[in-house]
Design a protein that fits this description.
The complex is a heterodimer of chains A (about 450) and B (about 350). Chain A is mostly helical and about 450 residues long. Chain A has helices at about 5-20, 20-45, 45-80, 80-115, 125-150, 175, 180-210, 215-250, 250-260, 290-295, 320-350, 355-365, 365-380, 405-435, 445-450, and strands spanning about 155-160, 165-170, 265, 270-275, 280-290, 305, 385-390, 395. Chain A is about 70% helix and about 5% strand. In chain A, the strands form four sheets. Chain A has a two-stranded antiparallel sheet with strand order 1-2. In chain A, helix 2 (about 20-45) packs across helix 7, helix 8 runs antiparallel to helix 11 (about 320-350) and helix 11 runs antiparallel to helix 13 (about 365-380). With about 350 residues, chain B is mainly alpha-helical. Chain B has one domain. Chain B is built from 13 helices and four strands. In chain B, the strands form two sheets. A two-stranded antiparallel ribbon of chain B has the order 1-2. In chain B, strand 1 and strand 2 (about 5-10) form a beta hairpin. Classes of the chains: A mainly alpha (about 450), B mainly alpha (about 350). At the A-B interface, helix 3, helix 4, strand 2 and helix 14 of A face helix 3, helix 4, helix 5 and helix 13 of B.
């Protein structure tokens, strides 16, 4: 791997991983906002209105950073991966342009009304803006995941030209959009986003409940988010299984890496945790013998092609990394199911908000879906290597010819510096907004707490 | 070659991307310009009013950049990869400035401390200036052509981009945006800041006209290929004449205190200057100053016919929607800015 390739890969991975902290939160929080404001319009209960206003302020912070770091991604395809851009422009470019036209424009235009339109438009128009912003972010994810899924499971194309002038051309637009992994991966990503957003609401609300501040608001928000979280975490089980089936069928090398399976043709085990020694081709850990075979073929003895059945130059090299990220994602997914279902059970028993330790767990739970979303993408993208477009274009062939290593190093240092600062500012301002809490108008019970936190600005 | 309404598909996309970039120049142009003059306001209240005048719309304006870039990627992938990778460091700086600008707007009023707000005001102003200058610098180099060999590979050096002509174009773009931004702010403000802005509109427009004349001269002398089109199509000479008249009309509107008209004129100026550039380019998208074989034409760079057709359909459905949102957004926030609890 030469320096330009290594640095460009690090830069892309770093900038997209950082970017991906924010869009899932926007999507998930957007859906929670729709529920909160919808309940306000339906019940006219001030609590829901104040909640909506509070969470809109946090939404604005998250959305702003998401947009700024997202534009970087669009440009990086051209700056660092010019050959890739030329190769896939016909396909990837269309999806990206469609995202801009159909999704991003919708989101950004109505964001203005969502943030600043409270006194300019009627409550119903404002609610419409909230719905459209949420829809915009959901559409946005659709086009981006479609584009990425095409890289994983290309279809509806043909290759024109050879060598340095080769490129993929759309032959069937809908086959390209609904390529074999689009739906499975999109639903998996979308639910991951709902989990990120709902656990943010759960975490902040649990903190208020522990501190005995804004208790009415916090409990109302907690209930909404808990339902979103419970339904989503169960749904994730289903979409996760579907995604794994697609990987099995279309990306055998990735599947083999996910479970550290090397033998050419043997039944494959399923690990709960473990360690892969890629050099010795050995995977050790806690496993269900034949578990993967059972899951895929409903038969513990069914053979599954391992990494050795794939040409060495076509195998992912970071096998242990793919294995660990995949297993961490699955483990967190299970924890989220347990946590949200247990929360619902306690809500039913009317002991949820009084159970202190559970509230403390919920405060920290915000990190779980974030980590799962990150490592899930690491599995998907590192597991796809050495290909940038699976089976068609190698990552090492996708670079910009005009760019030198020292330029990429300079930009990488610049982005690192800025993103570290940006993250520190984000945490600081988020914390400040949480400390400030919702602006409560006339509730006797909560007057005390709002007096302790005078309205700033 | 397949045509729609008598125009071939690559030309359609050349026109559409031109329209998107013009839309971006006009819309983001005024909020970049407003950012560039932010530090001229001394009072905290004036700065907040100026910031909130663009507050609800700047993000929507930036969408045009995202769509424009996405369309270039989709329709002319070869050009997208070439331009972005050749101007690697300028574009990286552009992105960095975009980030700083977004967070400055978002963060500045979140704290009351004087140093905090001053810091973000400076960051907002500097990033707006840097973005405008970089756009101009890249434009200036594209007008002259960049060193590409017959295989469209870049054979030049980074420092060659900082030539006098490109720097002149960069300053011209900045002056255009500053004037444009000043007139936008005039329409959105009243009282003291309004009075201050009228002086600024006057000064920036004088500065712009100076830059405009210098750039026109320099183009005629040093970049004659931009004017080749008028030899074959003398009737098109009406466009540069129109540009001059409209630029003069900006001055006239400012002197007569008709700022709305002035703002419309500076919007048209932005579009006309880009149209003149596009006419000098067509049918190429990138000119090479090293080897005529290095020019990248729209036909060579275009995506497949099928893709261009699908995308054209998407654009015909989608762009009216985008235009509707844009109009709805500006209509909702029409009139003079009043600071309220949700303001930045």
């Amino acid at each position: 791997m030469d320096n330009v390739e290594l640095l460009s890969r690090i830069q892309f991975a770093f900038t997209i991983a950082f970017h991906y902290i924010y869009p899932p939160l926007s999507i998930g929080l957007g859906v929670c906002l729709v529920v909160m404001e919808g309940l306000y319009l339906k019940t006219k209960d001030k609590v829901y209105e104040e909640l909506t206003r509070f969470w809109v302020r946090i939404f604005a912070l998250i959305f702003g950073i998401g947009v700024a770091t997202g534009i970087v991604m669009e440009f990086e395809f051209g700056t660092n991966w010019a050959t890739y851009s030329r190769y896939v422009g016909d396909i990837f470019g269309s999806a990206l342009a469609a995202e801009g036209i159909f999704a991003f424009a919708l989101e950004s235009a109505f964001l203005g009304i969502l943030l600043f339109g409270w006194n300019k438009v009627s409550p119903h128009v404002h609610f419409m803006a909230t719905v459209l912003v949420a829809l915009g972010s959901i559409f946005s994810a659709l086009w981006i995941v479609v584009a990425n899924s095409w890289q994983q499971t290309p279809s509806g194309y043909r290759i024109e030209g050879e060598g340095m002038t080769a490129r993929a051309i759309v032959t069937d637009f809908w086959a390209m959009v609904f390529n074999p992994s689009s739906i499975e991966r999109y639903s998996h990503v979308l639910i991951g986003a709902l989990l990120a957003g709902s656990f943010l609401v759960l975490s902040v609300s649990a903190w208020y409940i522990l501190k005995k501040q804004y208790v009415v608001h916090a409990q109302a928000a907690f209930r909404i988010a808990l339902w979103v979280a419970a339904v989503s975490s169960l749904g994730q089980l289903f979409t996760g299984h579907k995604s794994a089936e697609v990987v099995t069928k279309y990306q055998p090398a990735k599947l083999a890496a996910m479970e550290g399976h090397f033998e050419k043709s043997a039944p494959a085990d399923m690990y709960l945790m473990g360690w892969v020694d890629a050099k010795e081709q050995k995977t050790t850990g806690l496993k269900i013998p034949g578990g993967l075979s059972l899951l895929v073929h409903q038969d513990v003895k069914a053979p599954i092609p391992g990494l050795n059945s794939i040409k060495p130059e076509d195998r992912p090299t970071a096998v242990n990394f793919v294995f660990q990220t995949y297993h961490l994602m699955v483990a967190i997914g299970m924890m989220l199911i347990a946590l949200s279902l247990f929360g619902l059970f306690m809500l039913y028993r009317k002991r949820l908000f009084e159970t202190r330790w559970l509230m403390i767990v919920f405060v920290f739970s915000v990190l779980l879906p974030q980590i799962a979303n990150q490592v899930g993408w690491y599995t998907a993208e590192v597991g796809r290597q050495p290909w940038v477009v699976y089976g068609l274009l190698r990552t090492s062939d996708a670079l910009s010819q005009a760019v030198k290593a020292e330029h990429v190093l300079a930009s990488l240092i610049l982005f690192t510096f800025i993103y570290v600062m940006l993250f520190a500012l984000f945490v600081y301002l988020l914390n400040k907004k949480i400390l400030h809490g919702p602006d409560v108008v006339d509730s006797e019970e909560e007057e005390a707490s709002s007096r302790m936190n005078p309205v700033l600005n | 070659m397949e045509t729609v309404l008598g125009i071939d598909l690559p030309t359609w996309w050349f026109l559409l991307i031109g329209a998107l970039i013009s839309g971006y120049g006009i819309l983001d142009g005024f909020d970049l310009g407003a950012g560039a003059i932010q530090l001229f306001f001394r009072k905290e209240e004036s700065r907040r009013i100026a910031l909130n005048a663009i507050g609800p719309v700047w993000d929507g304006n930036e969408v045009w950049l995202v769509i424009g870039a996405g369309s270039l990627f989709a329709a002319f992938p070869l050009v997208y990869g070439t331009i972005l990778s050749v101007f690697y460091l300028p574009f990286i700086l552009f992105l960095v400035a975009i980030i700083f600008r977004a967070i400055s707007i978002e963060f500045r009023s979140k704290e009351k401390m004087k140093w905090w707000r001053q810091l973000w005001d400076i960051s907002f102003c500097v990033s707006s200036i840097v973005i405008s200058l970089l756009l101009g610098l890249i434009l200036g180099n594209l007008i002259q052509g960049i060193p590409l060999n017959a295989k469209h590979e870049f054979i030049g050096r980074l420092r060659d981009f900082f030539n006098p002509y490109a720097l002149l174009v960069a300053i011209t773009v900045l002056s255009l945006f500053m004037m444009h931004g000043a007139m936008y702010l005039i329409m959105k403000t009243e009282d003291r800041i309004f009075a201050r802005l009228t002086v600024m509109a006057n000064n920036t427009s004088k500065f712009f006209i100076l830059c405009f004349m210098a750039t026109s001269m320099a183009t005629l002398i040093y970049v004659p290929h931009m004017t080749d089109i008028f030899k074959s199509h003398p009737e098109l000479f009406i466009l540069p004449i129109a540009a001059v008249l409209i630029v003069l009309n900006i001055r006239r509107s400012i002197e007569k205190r008709q700022y709305r008209r002035g703002f419309v004129s500076s919007s048209i100026t932005t579009a006309l200057l880009l149209i003149l550039f596009a006419m000098g380019l067509y049918p190429n998208l990138v000119l090479s100053n090293a080897d005529p074989q290095g020019n990248i034409s729209i036909y060579e760079a275009a995506s497949s016919t099928g893709s261009l057709k699908t995308m054209l359909l998407i654009a015909f459905i989608g762009m009216p929607l985008v235009a509707t949102y844009t109009v709805f957004m500006f209509w909702t926030f029409r009139g003079k800015v009043k600071l309220e609890e949700h303001s930045y």
